[in-house]
Known about the structure:
Layout: H1 20-28, E1 33-34, H2 37-43, E2 56-59, E3 64-68, E4 73-77, E5 84-91, E6 99-101, E7 111-117, E8 125-130, E9 138-146, E10 151-159, E11 162-168, E12 171-179, E13 187-194, E14 201-209, E15 217-222, E16 231-237
Amino acid sequence: MGANAQTTVQKFVDGAVLTAEQQNFSAATGVPVFATTVTRDAAFGGANKVLAEGQLAYIEASNIVQYYDGAAWATVGPTAASGLVLITAQTILSAVPSVVVSDVFSSTYENYLVTLNGGVGSTTLNLRMILGATTTGYYYGVPLVTFTSDLSLTTGQNATHWRAGEATVNASIMSIVIQSPQLAKISVMATTIITPRTDGYAGAGGGYLNDTTQYTGFTITPSTGTLTGGVIRVYGYQNS
């Protein structure tokens, strides 16, 4: 963040002393700057500052300016041509048993795109919602065809995770659309699976999580082995 970035929302009460430092800080800045929509939400509300229509905020993770329209945050600009806004890009370290992606789902977006490129692990990558997560309730169906034309179907009923992708030698490719993870309703997943090898897989599937918990993040775990390298990116679909 810049030297003059306003990272807090000040509140003064009757009788409080307004210092020169606070006055200079206020004069040197304008729009509050927050790392993510999660830190933005934490700075407002409660006893600190109740949101008012017209309040502005700048989000570093996606390089956008937002305004509060009286009911929700809306984006001023810039607007991504694809309708997607990058929320986070998280690098996978060496030989990790799982990857936790925290604080990416918020009230700003209803639907999200999760991609993974790179990484070496087992033949299956599993995804589980976190922060208030249930241990079961995942339903999915994933038909797969190998590049040698073998066909298989993997399903899960009341499972402990979604089957999200493939992780084999050379690369992992995962593309998942997750709908309504932060709303108090059932979360839905649609996944595309590609394993770029001569004996690899291609397929697409989907599923849902049978609860109404409002989630803020997720975990990626290989069924066996570890993950090494690669980047997980999370995008928010603009609501309008």
